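Hi Q.,

Before the meeting this afternoon, I wanted you to have the 4'-deoxy-4'-aminopyridoxal-5'-phosphate prediction in hand. No need to reply - just skim if you have a minute. The sequence and ligand are here:
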Amino acid sequence: MHDKRCYDDILDVIGNTPLVRLNRITVGLPCQVHAKLEFLNPMGSSKDRIAKHLVEVAEKDGRLKPGDRILENSSGNTAMGLALLAIQKGYELTVVVRDRTSKEKLDQLKALGVDVRKVDTSLPPEHPDSYNNITPRLAKELPRCYFPDQHNNRENNDAHYLGMGPEIWDQMDGRIDVLVAGMGTGGTIGGVGRFLKEQNPNIKIVAVDVEGSIFTEYFRTGKVGKPAPYLLEGLGDEFLIGCADFSVIDEMVQVSDRDAFHAARDLARQEGLLVGGSSGAVIHAALQVGRTLPVGTRMAIVFADSASRYLSTIFNDDWMREKNLL
Ligand code: PMP
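Predicted structure with the ligand bound:
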């Protein structure tokens, strides 16, 4: 999309997304803010990158063989990326999603012919059918099944260490002071953060979490507290997961559903950027952190997916009112 080449394969279009300076929503900030537009990946999110990497490394070492089934739990975006990989490479695909997953994502997965299993998120984490327990169980039950396990398999972080990290470094000409990105599985912040710290350990890595998730309290106190329900898709978790690499994180900012959703709506109206709720959380945190930085500081931030997945929720006044968020 961004060069004059004709691609031989849709999978070659994954990654190499544009980095764009935000000039409007940032008015008055002492720093520059550059956003990585991950919704321009073929399936519309940063998770296309990990889908491709997780499938290709497993093919290489024989964990995944022709005709096998891929199984994963996903907030919807990894599922979309894996659907593209499965269709292009001839695998079956089953995905487990939370019941709060937006209708748009579920409709898209249906259009792609994916076998979707919806999980009741009111079940406690220790319940055998809870979001994080059901998939390992299905992995044992389903024949010829490869479960990449994006929440615990650090090949997820590697995908971003090898892809988005070097891209941001190059696109910023090596002049970057702060990275702000969301933390869901932790792959993005872990992989990009690790790459940037290796180039320059002074780069500040800021992870964005959502109110209700246990990540922030764990980062600050070393204790896993009690999770609370939240609506934002893609960020946070109710317990600790293997891809959450706190060693590269300097600061965590926890954002409420309300602030994240309103910031996403502001981005649409002020920048013309149609991005999802996690990008709203990221810009909210970036503006907060940015206000405290010295003049001329250069910040890169990650917008993980598109508003098109949340038109019936975040961008719908009736839904927002129903959730008491307007
Ligand atoms: N935003 C959205 C919309 C996502 O789907 C995800 C993935 N869960 C993230 C942010 C966070 O990315 P990561 O899993 O790499 O931490």
